[in-house]
What does this fold into?
Amino acid sequence: IDVAGFVIGWQAVVLAVSQENSFLECLSLDELVTLFGADAGIATWRAFGTSDSQGALAFFVSSAPDGGYEYFNEVVSGGEGTSFITQFLDDRTAIVNALVDNPGAVGLLTAVDYAANSDQLRTLAIAGNSGTCVQPTRSTIEDGSYEPLSRPLYLYFDVDGPANTPLIDAFLSYMLGTEGLSLFTEAVGYVSLTDDDIEALRTRYDAP
It folds into this structure.
């Protein structure tokens, strides 16, 4: 099998807090596990080592099946679930409102949803394997330095698959067209390709 593939977008989740939150700036992977992992037992910021005045620790996530929570769960707990402090809310708007009302809370959002509410919230930097605190931006998501909470989404196809070239050409034309690309855009929470990236892919695969 001759397999080819290319990046079609990026999935990235961010930890957001109220702009009123002045005590939390960056979390390491170990701290993510300590706070939000399946075996976490911390219920107050004092227990985590911050000021007692911050009160109870709350973690808001969306119950919508967008893959964001599942991805975070896999990173911090290997898919075993998250801390007992996790509260599932109906949608992303509810998370934003809950964060604004609770400066001591942390919320899980897609990078796209955060960008739409950046006037009310701010993001926490993440110190991944490099040990360096990295903020989620398009640049750090695309270059992989915002890890482990972002990953590229690949589209693979068999160059020598059934019906050979005509079928592959039709598939690529669809996926690199407006309708196909709409599956991997901000509308569904993914960081999409830039126009230049899209044009480069269309040129590479001779897609219209």
Remarks:
- Strands lie at 3-18, 26-28, 58-62, 86-89, 105-110, 121-123, 125-127, 133-134, 150-158.
- The CA atoms of residues 160 and 189 lie 32 Å apart.
- The chain has a mean pLDDT of 85.
